[in-house]
Amino acid sequence: MLVISFGIPKSGSTLAFELAKAALTFAGYPQHRLPDDLVLPESSVNFMNKPDIEHVEAVLRFMTPDRRLIVKTHNRPPPRELPHFEALVRAGRIKIQLPVRDPRDTCLSLVDAGDKARATGQAGFAHIHTLEDARAVVGRHIRKFQIWAALSDALLLPYDQCAFDTETAIRRICAHLGIDAPVPEVRDHVMNHAFTQFNKGVADRHVTEMQPVDSESIRAEFAPFFRDFIEADGSDSVWVRQFRKRHIPEPDAA
What we know:
Blueprint: E1 2-6, H1 13-26, H2 53-62, E2 69-73, H3 82-90, E3 94-100, H4 103-120, H5 131-149, E4 155-158, H6 159-164, H7 166-177, H8 183-192, H9 206-209, H10 212-221, H11 223-230, H12 238-247
Parallel strand pairs: 1-2, 1-3, 3-4
Helix pairs in contact: 1-7, 1-8, 4-5, 7-8
């Protein structure tokens, strides 16, 4: 089984990935590094920069049938490939996990990352100077999020749960993956030893760090995402359901 962890940058994506990675490891599924032709060579973790069906199938061919492995990505497959991904989900060959965070807090974290990148001479987020820059990044990635969320059985992992109710998040990850891992040990490992790209670790930053006019503007811009994934649990997303209807035929209609 291949687990694909997609996250909007600075939405708690590294934390969610590390929680699932540790849960798999403690459950007896070592997370060995994949060959450089299957994942991004310069990344220390299994990061898939191009998660299209060709690359996913290549990883599945490389894996033994009893192996369970998680890869991280900030990208998405072409929408036309969604029926193929849906077939892999239904066959139990892949699972999708999606960290979810309030876009306003993600924007603030992206601006922090931009400031840090420029101060340390790193390229990653150096182009993000302003809240408007951050909004553009979030907007592009929310469209990618919608594609992954359209697949069956995708597990949504709220940022606040991963960061502040971590054992609940771990139990949900284990249930989703069908594994048994020692929850306190997983939590201790991730929170005290793993590289999670920890920034401030504060809930609802926008309440005290963002001007009300900006807060309301971002909420209006990403209204469907707020409605279905921040104010609800995504289980009845009109936004995703309509996208799914366009791109993934039901089994009897295929």
